[in-house]
């Protein structure tokens, strides 16, 4: 599973607009500079975001972009989808009747990866720009998940044997 720069940059730029847009539209050049994202790339992304009704633009001096809705009403999944990014966890074409193998059958783990894609989509659908702005993410859950894997990076366990 891979989320490309389209989705990540779109979300990052939208969070920047939400953070800095309290006094009016935000110039994309300033977003590009703060977030170290190409201005031309942002212009392409914001064209898509505007067509999907997530941002509105104002031309002229003092112009720029602002959120089309309050930050707590814009789901992260909507931004990713507006950037024309699909979160695919399988190699399948998207046609539910065919799989990812050369004979068009589904691989043995297809349903596992398909379900993971659904979990990711549901998570991103449940989080808004406001959640990211206020860091209102489920840190307890994330920390617990990371703790489950601490043994991987815990140097104290390196070189120890099972009976050691």
SS element count, helices: 8
Mean pLDDT equals 81
Number of strands: 2
SSE string, helices as H and strands as E:
HHHEEHHHHH
Number of separate domains: 1
Helix content: 40-55%
Strand order of the largest sheet: 1-2
Main beta-sheet annotation:
2 strands, antiparallel
How much is the radius of gyration in Å? 20 Å
- Uncertain runs are 139-164
Give the CATH architecture. Orthogonal Bundle
How much of the sequence lies in strands comes to: under 5%
- Name of the CATH superfamily: Winged helix-like DNA-binding domain superfamily/Winged helix DNA-binding domain
Classify the fold: give the CATH topology: Arc Repressor Mutant, subunit A
How far apart are the first and last residues' alpha carbons, in Å?
Answer: 37 Å
CATH hierarchy class name: Mainly Alpha
Give the structural class.
Answer: mainly alpha
Q: What is the 3D form?
A: elongated
